[in-house]
Design brief:
Layout lengths: L2 E7 L4 H16 L4 E6 L10 H12 L5 H5 L8 H13 L4 H14 L11 H6 L15 H17 L6 E6 L2 E5 L10 H13 L1
């Protein structure tokens, strides 16, 4: 049985932050599963999810948001450099990508790091022994990030939605659409739900 998980997200989206624990739970339950973390690069410095969405995500998921993040929650966010870094990690050191995403979301939503210039990524780059080129920290999307957006487009055409976060698991030739919104308050419940779906396929 070949299992793969596709997670479409934006690093600066509170709902994506709330959905990542589901990805963590599924990866722990299926350690052999190939995970594709697909950064949608939605935020380009013009808007943000805002206070209302952050508060709703916090209420439903129980996740904490740090004081500095809350203070600037309505300021425009720019996730382009993060999309570039995550595209680079996926293509060069894929085994680290989920740990890196968790660290990035912690830095942004708990520590209030805007992840807006090269310096903001230093601690994460050092911690995970990454060696991205300077191109990753430019203001335009890298080739790796562009490839990710092409993959997202293909998945969105199949499932008929352009929203995010989105989670789709494939088991051999079958696709399971995971409604993440049902499990935000109890991420481990997603594992039992997926097991039922897999059993029905077999």
């Amino acid at each position: 049985m070949t299992t793969e998980l596709y997670f479409i997200y934006d690093s600066h989206c509170p709902w994506s932050y709330a959905a990542t624990p589901l990805v963590n739970a599924l990866q722990a339950a299926y350690p052999e599963m190939i995970v594709h973390l697909l950064h949608s690069a939605h935020y380009i410095g013009q808007d943000s999810a805002g206070e209302e969405q952050m508060e709703a995500a916090a209420r439903i998921s129980g996740l904490k948001f740090g004081r500095d993040h809350i203070r600037y929650v309505n300021s425009p966010k720019n996730s382009v450099k993060t999309a570039n870094l995550m595209g680079w990690v996926q293509s060069k050191q894929a085994s680290k990508q989920l740990d890196v995403l968790n660290a990035i979301q912690r830095a942004h939503f708990i520590e209030g790091n805007p992840l807006d210039n090269k310096h903001d990524f230093n601690a994460i780059v050092e911690k995970f022994k990454l060696s991205p080129s300077n191109k990753v920290f430019k203001d335009e999307l890298s080739i790796d990030a562009e490839h990710v957006l092409e993959s997202i487009e293909e998945i969105q055409q199949v499932i008929g939605t352009a929203g995010f976060p989105v989670m789709v698991m494939t088991v051999d030739d079958n696709a399971i659409f995971i409604d993440h919104s049902q499990y935000l308050s109890s991420p481990h419940a997603v594992v039992a739900a997926v097991e039922k779906e897999i059993a029905a396929i077999k």
